[in-house]
Design goal:
Layout (H helix, E strand, L loop, with lengths): L1 H28 L8 H26 L7 H30 L3 H18 L5 H25 L4 H25 L9 H20 L6 H18 L4 H9 L9 H49 L1
Helix pairs in contact: 1-2, 1-3, 2-3, 2-10, 3-10, 5-6, 5-8, 6-7, 6-8, 7-8
Length: about 300
């Protein structure tokens, strides 16, 4: 019986492993297609697991055990089939990433980085990045103010007034950002924050300038300083700051072994899971069929009596 079990396990495990390998190959070649194909491949994987494990356990039940199988034996058979598929898919992936597509690991790593960046865009800006953004904005505005004042030929009183107004604007900007953080959840996502901060700075400057009495030349210079500062703010990149901090946590593969093992283990876990339902279905179905046969047999015996 063990020899027959081995042959059945090798046959259906090999078929399952080959089918999953072909599916993985199709996924690799289809990864650049711009549509959500992942759910389709996941569904196909599930169907392949159920189909081949079912056929393997059913053949062992009918051909070796005479049409009756208990759950532990059915589950053991399904597990052995899954183990064969696990080994085959592992070998295939090792060969694929080592000899067939030598830059495959680089593509996988790049895809993980792209996926992380896409996920990062929808997350809320962390306090560290918020503080750094406000601090660097203060520095570049002051630096731009010093540069333009030095190049300007305006009188000294204008120089002192502008410095005071810049400090007032920057203080109000920092306070506005901190207050808005508790309300504007959408604007404080990484993909929206930079544009929101630039707009906020200009709004603060507009509101303050409209309420102060200074020379028109000073107002024009102050406006130019703020416009140039807004342009310089585009160089501030909180997304990159967050990405650089978390880069060590993004999956990165330097050789094929961990990648092949990770995917192969997922095959093993899927197989162990789906085998439970296949084994339950086959053993319960047989018990039900036997109970009906017993009922018919009892009816015939009653008639004879």
């Amino acid at each position: 019986m063990k020899k027959k079990l081995l042959l059945i396990v090798l046959k259906w495990g090999t078929l399952l492993g080959v089918a999953l390998s072909v599916l993985e190959m199709v996924k690799m070649y289809a990864r650049n297609i711009d549509y959500g194909a992942s759910p389709v491949f996941d569904l196909i994987s599930i169907l392949l697991f159920i189909f081949f494990i079912y056929l393997g356990v059913k053949e062992f039940r009918n051909e070796v055990l005479g049409g009756y199988i208990r759950f532990p034996k059915a589950y053991e058979t399904g597990v052995l089939i899954t183990l064969v598929a696990f080994i085959l898919i592992f070998v295939y992936l090792m060969v694929y990433y080592t000899w067939i597509e030598k830059d495959g690991l680089a593509k996988v790593n790049q895809r993980h980085q792209d996926q992380y960046r896409e996920l990062l865009l929808k997350t809320t800006v962390e306090e560290a990045d918020l503080t750094q953004y406000v601090t660097e904005t203060n520095n570049l505005v002051k630096k731009e103010g010093e540069r333009m004042l030095k190049e300007s030929r305006l009188a000294t009183p204008c120089d002192s007034v502008i410095k005071v107004q810049l400090q007032i604007i920057l203080t109000a900007f920092g306070e506005r950002i901190q207050k808005s953080k508790l309300i504007d959840s959408v604007d404080f996502k990484y993909d929206n924050f930079s544009a929101y901060a630039q707009k906020t700075l200009m709004n603060v400057e507009h509101n303050l300038v409209s309420n102060i009495q200074i020379e028109d030349d000073c107002v024009r210079l102050l406006n130019n300083i703020m416009l140039n500062s807004k342009t310089n703010m585009q160089l501030l990149n909180p997304i990159q700051w967050k990405y650089d901090r978390d880069q060590a946590d993004i999956p990165h593969y330097s050789n094929a072994f961990p990648l092949a093992l990770m995917y192969s283990l997922s095959v093993l876990l899927y197989g162990l899971f789906f085998t439970i339902f296949v084994a339950l279905y086959l053993c319960k179905r047989v018990v039900k069929e036997l109970s009906e046969e017993e009922k018919d047999k009892n009816k015939e015996e009653n008639r004879e009596n």
